[in-house]
Amino acid sequence: MKKPMEKHLTLREKILENIRDAIVTGSLKAGSRVSEPELAERYGISRTPIREAFRQLESEGYLTVIPRRGAVVSSFSPKDVEEFYAIKSILEGYAARQACEKLSDKDIDRLQGINDKLAELARQSDIRHFFKIHSDFHDLFIKAADNEKLRELIAGLVTKFQRLRFTSLSLPDRMTVSVQEHEKIIDAFRRRDADAAETLVRKNAEYGGHVLMGATPAVTTSILN
């Protein structure tokens, strides 16, 4: 029973990865229809795992599933982008302030270890692994803030706009700049400077929105109206 399940999960992840790639790179543009029957035929599977993949991609902000029409690539307006990064900066900045005195020296060393890995991935231009570990960096200090409601709010917001964050980090030199920003944040945590930690984390989030809005037309067309 285990082997078929493992094969199913692997295939589902492959479907998710392929659709995400097509959307982020602009092969599938905002408003484009993603055909459930075509994907089922291509992968030689039933529509059930396709629907499951669509539900996850919808929760991440990549797709919108419309009754009787199917799935279409979601679009974000410039206002959506601006509001997401504004709210993210406020919530994560507050989390950084609360975490500043609660992070142990071991926690800060872990942040440094994560950022060292990110630096290596940036040199390799490995956006996939960079994106996952980048989230680990933020999750660590958000968790250390010891505010479960705040953590839930941030997690829900970030999940819905995963696509924007991935696209922002995919832009030229963005990974390298992110690593540099993280070093400043780590230094603020080591100094237990809550004001600096909050300011740096807020600027980090705001910068992500600015570079995305200033991206090339090909990139913005794939995500914005």
What does this structure look like?
By secondary structure, this protein is mainly alpha-helical. Helices cover 76% and strands 4% of the residues. The chain has a three-stranded antiparallel beta sheet. Strand 2 and strand 3 (70-73) form a beta hairpin. Helix 5 (105-124) runs antiparallel to helix 6 (127-144).
Q: Note the run of SSEs as H and E.
A: HEHHEEHHHHHHHH
Report the total helices.
11
Gross morphology: elongated
CATH H-level superfamily of the largest domain: GntR ligand-binding domain-like
- Give the beta-strand count: 3
| Name given to the CATH architecture of the largest domain | Up-down Bundle
| Structural Rg | 19 Å
User: What count of domains describes the coordinates?
Assistant: 2
Helix content: over 70%
Estimate the mean pLDDT confidence.
88
CATH topology of the largest domain: Four Helix Bundle (Hemerythrin (Met), subunit A)
Strand content range: under 5%
Q: Give the termini separation.
A: 45 Å
CATH C-level category of the largest domain:
Mainly Alpha
Instruction: Detail the poorly predicted runs.
Output: 1-8
Write a compact overview of the structure shown.
The protein is built from eleven helices and three strands, in the order αβααββαααααααα. The chain is mostly helical and about 220 residues long. The chain has a three-stranded antiparallel β-sheet.
